[in-house]
Design brief:
2 strands; single chain; two-stranded antiparallel sheet; 2 domains; mainly alpha
Length: 176
């Protein structure tokens, strides 16, 4: 999924609109039937039977309304799920802020595991090149496509950077 790319939700929105239309039609039918029940004359010979029949129809309308409302809620949940899946700059920024906070709470082993998951390769300068560049790290290759993220975040306002201090330690059999 690309950052900032919108997802076409017109089909779901059209489905929601059709549920709204169905509910409005059912509401009109319900009000009309309630009005008819209220307007029945008590001296009518079949008034009780008519009320019973109309109440059955009214119950059916309520069942239909409940069914449509349930389908509408399912559709609304689908729409929200699709919208939540959209990856945008604001969400990435929030994730980076949370990552920084959570990363600091991790143990050293957990931090190492996270770094192994995020970074696929680190290239270091040779000893004679270190004096020229004044740094050990030549290149860091991430395990995900960082270049496209950078294009979408460039010139969009303030950026957040996370700095990780790497220290030179004795070679550990865990690191390969």
């Amino acid at each position: 999924m690309k950052i900032g790319k919108s997802i076409d939700v017109t089909e779901i929105e059209n489905e929601l609109a059709s549920y709204d239309k169905k509910l409005k039609a059912l509401e009109r039918n319900k009000k009309s039937l309630e009005k008819d029940i209220d307007n029945l004359l008590d001296d009518d010979k079949f008034a009780n039977r008519k009320r019973a029949d109309m109440n059955k129809r009214l119950d059916k309308i309520y069942e239909d309304m409940d069914s449509v409302e349930s389908e509408q809620m399912d559709c609304l949940h689908r729409l929200q799920a699709v919208q939540e899946q959209q990856l945008n700059e604001k969400k990435i920024y929030q994730m980076l802020l949370e990552f920084d906070r959570i990363y600091d709470k991790l143990s050293m082993d957990e931090q190492r595991s996270v770094l192994h998951a995020l970074i696929s390769e680190i290239q270091l300068y040779k000893k004679d090149e270190i004096k020229e560049s004044k740094t050990y790290i030549k290149k860091i290759k991430f395990a995900f496509d960082i270049e496209n993220i950078g294009e979408n975040l460039d010139n969009k306002g303030n950026n957040v950077e996370t700095v990780c201090l790497l220290g030179k330690k004795k070679r550990s059999p865990i690191l390969t």
